[in-house]
Write a structure and sequence with these properties.
Distance between the termini: 58 Å
Number of domains: 3
Strand order of the largest sheet: 1-2-3-4-5
CATH architecture of the largest domain: 3-Layer(aba) Sandwich
Number of strands: 15
Radius of gyration: 28 Å
Structural class: alpha+beta
Number of helices: 18
Bound molecules: zinc ion
Length: about 500
């Protein structure tokens, strides 16, 4: 048995506003404040209510209990539950928890994102929004990672500023933001009033231009207005194989969690599924019959690594090692295009981090299901040796048996880490953030470090020639030398 929130509204005799009736919500006169209009919103999809005027909100049983008994509903409140069953004409002699659970639980309604070209259109407009122009600080950050100006332009990175003083000029958006703030907080979203207002300004503008925003992750509709859920930081587009923008990530400037997927899950009209998509960098070589594709974690990392690797090998990236929902179908498409191998290049802490190993194993299974070969690549083996030595010391100190040495430092490190992890004795070691030297953790970090080291070495070799000794030959050998570096890097990672 399911009692719908509409039934409760009718039992309580709340007056509906006819013109506010939508597919999954309508408004009623709020019984909790001296409401002369229709402030209380009833969300029929989620079975929740909220009044932005007096900030009263909750589930459908709360609505019933607050009106009839003046208290929120607490699980197992027989008095409230029996009265409700009585009012809707149900047999109320037996209080059954199962019955209660069925009533409390709302039928979950999934909201799927629209097609990729609709996503691309909406996100394209977000990227063209002038207040989100890339900041100089972020541009420098991208240059420091090894990207060139032209890559930065083409890839369309943007900045969502922490401070937006200009929004103060938009009184209407600020007013809407004030109304939205409480219902947003009630749903666990806490953006600043300026971020809400900027999101309203952007989203209202797009909706007014006829953009379809329903289910586009990040967009939501609250109190009759569209909004866009913003966090400050660097905005990084996620693209599908055709280069269409199908998702956005924010790299937060400070804090432990660095990358957030732009989402409005849990807000009205916000997509609930398939939000974190697999990324394919712009500038990838044509995938058809390419042989191998390199898989990393994080769209920005893939953008950078593809370039530092010389551009000949195609890349793909997950938004996080566990965001594998669309991977099966991506592998299938790759297989059909003639890609025969996936090369996993997750961050090197994978040799120690058991969660990453597990995720990698799952991806291997998905690849095999799609009949694509799967291998893993490792680098910074000197660092791996140091970590192995640390693990052996820890094992000896705690009296933990590790597998016999094989001579392959990666295999040995993985084995030792797993034994230590399984023992449960050195939890602190695994929960620490510093499992790996940041300068060689990601393939992008590692390639950049190598290139810088080579450049430094070359700089030392340069002796200013005087005009008499400068010959054609010498110029040629310099060219060869630097392209030799690229060749060496390519050879090292040749697949
Ligand atoms: Zn109210």
């Amino acid at each position: 048995m399911e009692i719908r929130i509409e039934q409760i509204v009718d039992i309580l005799g709340l007056e509906r506003e006819r013109r506010s009736q939508k597919a999954d919500s309508f408004n009623v006169r709020c019984p909790f404040c001296n409401d002369h209009k229709y402030h209380l919103n009833i969300n029929t999809a989620k079975g929740v209510f909220n009044c932005p005027r007096c900030s009263t909100g909750g589930g459908k049983l709360d609505l019933y209990s607050l009106v009839r008994f003046g208290r929120k509903y607490i699980k197992g409140d027989r008095e409230v539950f029996h009265r409700l069953l009585e009012e809707i004409g149900e047999d109320n002699r037996n209080f059954e928890y199962k019955k209660e659970r069925n009533v409390v639980e709302n039928k979950y309604e999934a909201i799927l994102p629209p097609s990729d070209n609709v996503l691309h259109e909406a996100y394209g407009a977000v990227l063209r929004f002038k207040p989100f122009a890339l900041s100089e600080e972020h541009r420098q950050n991208l240059l420091d990672r090894g990207l060139r100006e032209e890559d930065i332009e083409r890839n369309e990175y943007r900045t969502i500023p922490a401070e937006m003083p200009w929004i103060k000029g938009y009184k209407k958006a600020l007013k809407v933001a004030e109304i939205m703030r409480k219902p947003l907080q009630n749903r666990g979203f806490n953006p600043s009033i300026y971020h809400i207002a900027a999101g309203v300004l952007l989203a209202d503008h797009l909706a007014g231009q006829g953009y379809n925003l329903k289910g586009v992750p990040g967009f939501y509709k609250l109190c009759g207005h569209w909004g866009f859920n913003l966090s400050s930081g660097m905005l990084i587009p996620t693209r599908n194989m055709n280069g269409e923008v199908v998702g956005l990530q924010v790299r937060v400037d400070k804090g432990n969690v660095r990358y957030l997927t732009v989402s409005s899950k849990g807000l009205p009209e916000g997509a609930t599924e398939n939000i974190s998509r697999t990324h394919f960098p712009l500038g990838n070589p044509v995938l058809r019959n390419k042989g191998a594709i390199l898989l990393t974690e994080g769209p920005l990392k893939a953008d950078v690594a593809r370039l530092l690797m010389g551009g000949a090998s195609p890349f793909m990236a997950l938004q996080g090692v566990n965001n594998t929902r669309d991977l099966s179908s991506e592998f299938q498409s790759l297989k059909e295009m003639g890609v025969s191998q996936v090369v996993e290049m997750f961050d090197m802490d994978k040799v120690i981090n058991p969660n990453v190993s597990k995720a990698s194993k799952k991806i291997e299974d998905l690849a095999h299901e799609a009949e694509v070969d799967f291998t893993r690549r490792y680098w910074a083996l000197d660092e791996c040796e140091r970590r192995y030595a640390d693990l052996l010391k820890l094992a000896a100190f705690n009296g933990i048996q590790v597998p016999e040495e094989t001579g392959n430092v990666v295999v040995d490190t993985v084995g030792a880490a797993q034994a230590l992890y399984a023992s449960g004795k050195v939890k602190d070691y695994f929960s620490g953030k510093a499992l790996w030297d940041p300068s060689s953790k990601g393939i992008d970090d590692y390639l950049l470090k190598q290139m810088k080291a080579k450049e430094e070495q070359e700089a030392k070799l340069v002796v200013l020639p005087n005009k008499e000794t400068l010959t054609e030959n010498k110029e040629e050998s310099t060219v060869e030398h630097s392209s030799g570096l690229l060749q060496a890097v390519k050879r090292k990672f040749a697949f």
